[in-house]
Amino acid sequence: EDQVTQSPEALRLQEGESSSLNCSYTVSGLRGLFWYRQDPGKGPEFLFTLYSAGEEKEKERLKATLTKKESFLHITAPKPEDSATYLCAVQSLHAGNNRKLIWGLGTSLAVNP
Amino acid sequence: DADVTQTPRNRITKTGKRIMLECSQTKGHDRMYWYRQDPGLGLRLIYYSFDVKDINKGEISDGYSVSRQAQAKFSLSLESAIPNQTALYFCATRRTGSEDTQYFGPGTRLTVL
């Protein structure tokens, strides 16, 4: 069964303290892995798509990497405005025409000033 | 202006009432989705539509119906609301042939008493 597990569930950092969020996945052939950011009471906001092992993408203080079993979202020198829930989703090569996404439960990140 | 809008943003209703949630988009995307989000369960797909003539059930469609009035409009109805339909509802859009990235609206918080 296709599955996505994110860890930790919650993470509290001091401003400037770098860390990584993990997204482990089990899928019958990966078509794509997606990272989203969600602020409280708002819709998920797209961050990155990764397609193959070894791929990396960066945006400001965020860097996403992908292996055959997991993805990491590295946060370098975070600021309080990086506080949010970070969601990971995967899409199987065998998802069919609907291109269904399988979502993780997210990591809630709090960055203290 | 937001690319994907949802109305209402908040709604409180009573058990047995019929409720309609509306979604409009100016992104020009052909594919539209309805999700619900619950704590501990993550995002779950209710219905999706590839165009005005193509409506498909997602993983949790029981108790819901949808209407694709135009390419830009996709409505979700709860025919007879029940308390366990209390959740955060999101509309999302995607363009066929794109990177499979879905873009989310701001959400509707629905409470069924």
Low-confidence stretches of chain B: none
What percent of residues of chain B adopt helix (DSSP H or I)? under 10%
The number of helical runs of chain B is: 0
What value does the Rg of chain A take, in angstroms?
14 Å
State the order of secondary-structure elements of chain A, H for helix, E for strand.
EEEEEEEEEEE
Shape summary of chain A? globular
Number of helices of chain A: 0
The tally of strands of chain A reads 11
Largest sheet of chain B: 7 strands, mixed
Average pLDDT for all residues of chain B:
93
Quaternary status of these chains?
heterodimer
SS-based structural class of chain B? mainly beta
What structural class do the secondary elements of chain A suggest? mainly beta
Largest contact between protein chains? Answer: A-B, 23 and 25 residues
Radius of gyration of chain B: 13 Å
**Beta-strand fraction estimate of chain A:** over 45%
* Average pLDDT level of chain A: 93
Total beta strands of chain B: 11
Terminal-residue CA separation of chain A? 41 Å
Largest sheet of chain A, if any? Answer: 6 strands, mixed
Overall, the morphology of chain B is globular
Description:
The complex is a heterodimer of chains A (113) and B (113). In chain A, a hairpin with a 2-residue loop joins strand 6 and strand 7 (62-66). Chain A has strands spanning 3-7, 10-14, 19-26, 30-38, 45-50, 56-59, 62-66, 70-75, 84-92, 101-103, 107-112. The model of chain A has no long low-confidence stretch (mean pLDDT 93). Chain A has no helices and 11 strands. Chain B has 113 residues and is an all-beta fold. Chain B contains no helices and 11 strands. Chain B has strands at 4-7, 10-13, 19-25, 31-38, 42-51, 54-57, 64-70, 73-78, 87-94, 103-104, 108-112. In chain B, the strands form 2 sheets. In chain B, strands 2, 4, 5, 6, 9, 10 and 11 form a 7-stranded mixed beta sheet that branches. Chain B has a 4-stranded antiparallel beta sheet with strand order 1-3-8-7, with no helix packed on it. In chain B, strand 9 and strand 10 (103-104) form a beta hairpin. The mean pLDDT of chain B is 93.
